[in-house]
Amino acid sequence: MQLPREVVVGKNTLDQIGAICKRLDFSKSALIVMGPKTMEIAGRKAMDILTDEGLKVDHLIVTSCNIKDIVFVEDKIDELKPQVILGVGGGTKIDVAKISASHKDKPFISVPTTASHDGIASPLVSLKGLDKPYSLMAQAPMAIVADTNIIINSSPRFTASGCADVIAKLTSVKDWKLAHEVIDEYYGEYAANLALMSARLMVRNARLLTTDREQGLRILLEALISCGVAMSIAGSSRPCSGSEHLFGHALDQIAPKPAMHGEQCGVGTIMMARLHNINWRQVRDTLKRVGAPTTAEELGMEKEHIVEALVRAQEIRPDRYTILDERSLTPETAKTLAKTTGVI
Ligand SMILES: [Zn+2]
Asked: For residues 98 and 69, what is the distance between their CA atoms, to the nearest angstrom?
């Protein structure tokens, strides 16, 4: 089990990046992986602080997380031999840094600039640009430095999407338990409860994101990080990714213009909650409260895409037993499910 050694969440925590690297014994060199925008938002500052601390700092700009980007970063790691890799950005930059560092047996520090999904703290990476989405085991970050002063300036859409990714654990944990009961899959109660507690805390505190954004953001970041830790404890994405994620991944393949990861999984959670016979209205209302989409229209999608994604979700990952294996959906039953929950 690999867990982060330092988790620093709060105002101006990026200022501590030099001290954190020193504490972890990284005093010689670092490689920062970021995007053109995240370089301006946080990357340049991180570079300056680490340079002032006496580290030799190199940086790389990446724009996506496909095989080419990963190989590019890995070649640079071979060439520069940094002690540590920092990923500064939203999803893709952190993923590229995480997987390249893991392949090259180097530690990795996560510096999120948005709170849009649980990948900021998980040991997994989602790989794009292949025939279907792949989730690969990489490594847990050695440290997570989440500066709420930076993240608070990101679009509220990112934050809403992050909330939805946390709320998704209400059904992913149900799916895991079901797999345990039906096919005797390993079920880790600790990991499951950690993910579930994060989702419940998010439901309870959702309104804070509009009334006290700073405090709401802190709870969201802690929830996302706890979900990442739950995956580290379980050794897979099982506690955090069930039928609602399969639906989200199916939409990625079907929709001409997919929405954000958390947004799609959130809408999936409403419908999977109904299949699981849990309070789907509460899921929908919480998503509404945080400003996340709850309908096809709000996702910017056609009704047909939702129905097709429901029918095809199970094929995305047949080895992952979920409620969709119990209730194999036909176009007709999928349509009824989407209609009853108000998604279409
Ligand atoms: Zn997710």
From this structure: 12
How many CA atoms, within 13 angstroms, populate the side-chain half-sphere of residue 213?
A: 15
Name the percent of the chain in helix, strand, coil, to the closest 5. 60, 10, 30
Rounded distance from Cα 324 to ligand 1 centre (Å): 18
Cα–ligand 1 centroid distance for 132 (angstroms)? 16
Is the pLDDT assigned to residue 20 strictly greater than 90? yes
Please say if the pLDDT value at position 185 is more than 90: yes
Query: How far is the centre of ligand 1, averaged over its atoms, from the C-alpha of 60 (Å)?
Result: 26
Report CA(53)–ligand 1 centroid distance (Å): 35
pLDDT of residue 129: 65
Q: What is the whole-number distance in angstroms between the Cα of residue 249 and the centre of ligand 1?
A: 10
Q: How far is the CA of 228 from the centre of ligand 1 (A)?
A: 10
Give strand pairing partners of 6: 143
CA 121 to ligand 1 center in whole angstroms: 11
Q: Note the pLDDT tens digit of each residue in 158-182.
A: 999 999 999 999 999 999 999 999 9
Q: How much is the pTM?
A: 0.95
Find the 165 Cα to ligand 1 centroid distance in Å: 5
Q: What proportion of the chain, given as a percentage, has pLDDT over 70?
A: 98
Cα separation, 109 vs 5, whole angstroms: 10
Residues with CB under 5 A from ligand 1 (ion): 165
In 3D space, the residue among 106, 139, 112 whose CA is nearest the CA of residue 38 turns out to be 112
> What is the C-alpha to C-alpha distance for residues 93 and 75, in angstroms, rounded to an integer?
16
Residue 138, classed as helix, strand or coil, is coil
DSSP of 140-172: --SEEEEEHHHHTTS-HHHHHHHHHHHHTHHHH
How many angstroms does the Cα of residue 83 sit away from the middle of ligand 1?
30
Per-residue pLDDT tens digits for 104-147:
999 999 999 999 999 999 999 987 766 666 788 999 999 999 99
